[in-house]
Amino acid sequence: MNMQLLHELAFYLMYACAALAIFVIAERGLFFGYTMRQATGLERAMTHAVQHVQELPAELTTRPSLPLALVTDILSEKHHLHSEKDLEDFSESVYIAKRGEVQQRLWILDTIVTAAPLLGLLGTILGIIDTFKALAVSGVSDPGQVSQGIGTALYATALGIGIAVVGMFFFNLFQERIERINDHLKVLMLRACVGRGSQPQSSPQPHGKLHVA
């Protein structure tokens, strides 16, 4: 078995993990930033008088966003529901569906945080094995080559730990952003449910005495 090839393969896997982590961090960072701005803007605009999406400011409705989708779904359906219980159940289902979209692709970052140190350790072990095999064949003729081989093997562990530390920092940061966005979504859900148009009712007949001319 070619240990040198496996050692290089472990490095390639870690480089792929680093590139994938950078992509997820950039994409989720832009998504969370945009979603937070839209949520805070809609939260300020959602008053008791707003009963339709068209009544919201145009700058908040021109581009699609997760908070806008939640508000749109609730406002478009709440006038067709027959009771407050139906409205509560519907708004809860919309909130749960939208909340799940916030956590998309974070499992990739979580997996990289767990796998990167293990790949680094695997690369170190394979590098050390390859160095010892070379020593067994040629003997200790140049201690500098031995040190270089061990150093290259240990570099794999350092690279894996570095990827995991960076990934863990952004993963925890995104978890905090998710909690804040979910809080804003809850506020928007409650405000969108306020002021549900009631069903028209016939005016009651007066109960006074009849006056006969």
Topology record:
Elements: H1 3-45, H2 58-61, H3 66-77, H4 84-102, H5 106-138, H6 143-193
Helix pairs in contact: 1-5, 1-6, 3-4, 3-6, 4-6, 5-6
Give structural notes.
The chain is an all-alpha fold. The chain has helices at 3-45, 58-61, 66-77, 84-102, 106-138, 143-193. The termini are far apart. The relative contact order is 0.17.
How many E strands?
0
Fraction of residues in helix: over 70%
Global Rg: 30 Å
**Count the helices. How many?**
6
- How would you state the average pLDDT, rounded? 83
Our measurement of the CA-to-CA distance between the termini, rounded to an integer number of angstroms, reads 115 Å
* Order of H and E elements: HHHHHH
Strand content of the residues, in percent? under 5%
CA-based shape: rod-shaped
- Given as residue ranges, the uncertain stretches (5+ residues, pLDDT < 50) are 197-213
Sheet with the most strands, sense and barrel status: none
Structure class: mainly alpha
Main features:
213 residues; mainly alpha; 6 helices; rod-shaped
Q: What's a quick, concise take on this entry?
A:
This protein has 213 residues and is mainly alpha-helical. The chain contains six helices and no strands.
